[in-house]
Design a protein that fits this description.
The complex is a heterodimer of chains A (about 160) and B (about 450). With about 160 residues, chain A is α+β, with helices and mostly antiparallel strands. Helix content of chain A is about 25%, strand content about 35%. Chain B folds into 3 domains: about 130 residues, Roll (Pnp Oxidase, Chain A); about 150 residues, Beta-Lactamase (2-Layer Sandwich); about 110 residues, Arc Repressor Mutant, subunit A. In chain B, the strands form 4 sheets. In chain B, strands 2-1-5-6-7-4-3 form a 7-stranded antiparallel sheet. In chain B, helix 2 runs antiparallel to helix 5 and helix 3 runs parallel beside helix 7. The termini of chain B are far apart. The chains are: A alpha+beta (about 160), B alpha+beta (about 450). At the A-B interface, strand 1, strand 2, strand 5 and strand 6 of A face strand 1, strand 2, strand 5, strand 6 and helix 6 of B.
């Protein structure tokens, strides 16, 4: 991903994770943080265990995963698709990242309505840290070009 | 935890957009916000489809999907496991969902560009509260619903009483809107009626906006009110800011793709409204007017409001119809001319522009169309013969006014004229004297000028 997309990913966007079970049942769950690796081709997604049990089970059977990142005030949105490499128990650094993310997300969502204190109640711990190799990036801002593959060179493992 | 779908009704207001996950044949997932998740009945929801997107492509090859919706007050998440059944591109469900998008599209200058392509109906198989998604709020912050059925019944009774006891259209409309405020706290409301061109609505009664709202016009198809008039269906918007931001995001995408779009249209009413509800006033399939309510808070109008307000709207429509049909004439001859209270020191100049039937007072717009023609007729009669008493019947019989032979809405035109004079030209007053009669009171020396064009 180019630097502007990396910045977009790491600044309090709404994070939605899509997975699919081995028998074709899709699932969605809200993530509470994302870290882009230095090679800009991998990400680690933080998913609360309370709501992420199905997602964790799905990716162990079918590693394909989608992550939609949306800037709430502008609806500027993109979707990453890739393959899960590992699902780990989150550590202290992941917890700290999720806590910081929740505050940033609360401010971003709070700028268009709901009280920040409300969003600060989002559950984050314990969490799964899910490592993903990015395969494709899609534009998803609502409009005529939503779904178009973005012209991004992604290093594939 | 099992949850009944109807108990999640507030989650479908669109204050927090819903999320849908789908997958293609190969098991590659897709996850996306969806602009409308519509509650169809206790077993079905419908997703709005505005673009031929990946969600829709996936549903065509794999009907399984998961939807997540959020409570607008607590932000609690609920997960719906669904199966896609069918796409509807016409019919009541489609029209209802399309109108909400159409209203936003018209405001953001995208009428005909940004529109609903289909309502994708899904059967809900499982509903789960996402335990652990968010900590429960303290008890004192939980939703405090108004007291439901008793409030509805009292409100219906009060407004019904106002309608049935009203002796005139003006008091019936004003009394109905005041009652909606007294009982339900709906502090900003208005009733608009179609003008004689059938292309515009004009505000005949308002509550909470001051007198300036009277006479405000909305074109059919423009904004929420114009869209409701055109579609003859109720539309409710729970979070105008959210919907407009979505519409503007779409507009920006079209604009960046090189599309030329119409300008945004300023919304009538409160500049910072968040919740809006507009209900068509219908008799059979004929549009009598639109009842519009708005509020600065999000999510003010719930589904149960729609139900009982629809009943009130029917009563108001019937009231308008009854009073329009009323035999408002008597056989008494016109009263003899009487001296008006004229201030010798004050002069006003009224100009009538023939090309668009428009009257200006001292260079400022006053009124147009049929009410303008009526005013001019009254002023000319006053000027030439000193008359100041008139009857509805003589107006109805005057072909130059262009009133239709059937359902002429004369009473509405006179109310509008009276209100506009109160606001813009207080030296002229129309005062009802008895059933079907009124007096023109002239409080200044009046100069009448006719011109072909402005």
């Amino acid at each position: 991903m180019p630097p502007e997309l990396v910045t977009f990913c790491e600044t309090g966007r709404s994070l939605l994770v899509g997975t699919c079970s081995a028998d074709g049942v899709p699932d969605c769950v809200r993530a509470v943080g994302v870290r882009v690796w230095p090679d800009a081709s991998h990400v680690t997604i933080l998913i609360p265990q309370a709501t992420g049990a199905d997602a964790a089970r799905n990716v162990r059977a079918n590693p394909r995963l989608a992550l939609t990142l949306s800037e709430i005030p502008s609806h500027r949105t993109m979707q990453l698709k890739g393959d899960v490499l590992a699902v780990r128990e989150g550590g202290d650094d992941d917890r700290a990242r999720a806590t910081a993310y929740r505050s940033t997300f609360a401010r971003e969502l709070g700028s268009v309505g709901p009280p920040i204190e409300l969003v600060e109640r989002l559950g984050i711990w314990p969490l799964w840290a899910v490592d993903v190799a990015i395969r494709m990036v899609f534009a998803q801002t609502p409009g005529p070009t939503a779904g178009a593959r973005m012209p991004v060179q992604v290093k594939v493992l | 935890m099992s949850v009944a779908l109807h108990t999640l009704e507030p989650c479908f207001h669109g204050i927090f957009p819903g999320v849908v996950a789908t997958a293609d044949r190969d098991g590659t997932p897709n996850v996306s916000y969806v602009s409308q998740v519509h509650l169809v009945d206790d077993r079905h929801v419908a997703l709005s489809c505005q673009f031929f997107n990946k969600t829709r492509q996936n549903l065509d090859v794999n009907p399984r999907a998961t939807i997540e919706v959020y409570d607008p007050v607590t932000f609690q998440a609920y997960r719906l496991r669904v199966t896609f059944l069918r796409s509807e591109t016409s019919g009541p469900l489609f029209e209802t969902m399309a109108l909400r998008i159409q209203a936003i599209a018209s405001v953001t200058g995208m009428s005909g560009v940004f529109k609903l392509r289909s309502a994708d109906v899904c059967e809900v198989l499982v509903i789960e509260k996402r335990e652990g998604y968010i900590a429960e709020p303290p008890v004192d912050e939980r939703r405090n619903f108004v007291d439901g059925p008793m409030t509805e019944i009292r409100g219906l009774q009060l407004v019904s009483d106002r309608i049935s006891r009203s002796c005139g259209l003006e008091s019936m409309l004003g009394g109905s809107l005041a009652a909606l405020d007294e009982v339900f706290g709906f502090s900003h409301s208005m009733i608009l009626v179609p003008d004689e061109t059938g292309t515009r609505l004009v505000t005949l009664a308002s509550h909470g906006y001051g007198d300036a709202a009277i006479g405000a016009e909305v074109r059919f198809g423009e904004g929420l009110i114009g869209t409701v008039a055109q579609g003859k269906r109720l539309v409710r918007i729970a979070s105008l800011d959210t919907e407009l931001r979505y519409g503007r995001a779409v507009r920006a995408e079209y604009a960046s793709a090189g599309d030329r779009l119409a300008a945004e249209i300023p919304l009538p009413g409160l500049p910072d409204a968040q919740s809006q509800l507009a209900i068509p006033l219908l008799m059979q399939d004929r549009l009598i007017g639109v009842l519009a309510l708005e509020c600065r808070d999000t999510g003010t109008f719930a589904q149960w409001h729609e139900s009982f307000l629809q009943i009130l709207a029917n009563q108001i429509a019937a009231g308008i119809e009854r009073m329009t049909d009323a035999d408002d004439d008597d056989d008494e001859p016109p009263a003899r001319p009487s001296a008006s209270q004229i201030s010798v020191n004050r002069r006003i100049s009224l100009t009538y522009f023939r090309n668009d039937d428009c009257v200006f007072v001292d260079g400022e717009y006053l009124i147009r169309n049929v009410p303008a023609k009526i005013l001019w007729k009254l002023l000319r009669a006053h000027e030439t013969s000193g008359r100041n008493e008139f009857s509805n019947r003589e107006l109805r019989l005057d072909p130059s006014l262009g009133l239709p032979a059937y359902k002429d809405n004369l009473e509405s035109r006179l109310i509008l004229l009276r209100k506009r004079l109160e606001q813009k030209c207080p030296d002229l007053r129309l005062v009802p004297t008895k059933r079907g009669r009124f007096a023109l009171e002239v409080g200044a020396k009046v100069e009448l000028v006719e011109r072909e064009t402005a």
